[in-house]
Fold:
Amino acid sequence: QVQLAESGGGVVQAGGSLRLSCTASGSIINRYSMAWYRQAPGKQRGLVADVAYSGSTHYADSVAGRFTISRDTSKKTIYLQMANLMPEDSGTYYCYVEVDRGVLGPQMIWGQGTQVTVSS
Structure:
């Protein structure tokens, strides 16, 4: 079974950069999409960026132009490069993978989350 492990979170000053990594253990052999979500205290978890099986990427308006999602299939790893960080970017960032299993339905896999704190 695929498991996800995030890393790269930390405390950074506004305007700084961080790169989050999410490494999957186990084999992803079907069609899949990947995404980063974040959740701030008292807020709902929301989509930050995603990359489809095709490689197409999408970003939330609040991070477009500042964040970049990428993947390295050989390393079973996805990344979120975050630049020009703002205090409102603070929260717990979760890696998410959705695997298309055809008739069995999608398998939805969440990482444990990594904390990002941006101070002003």
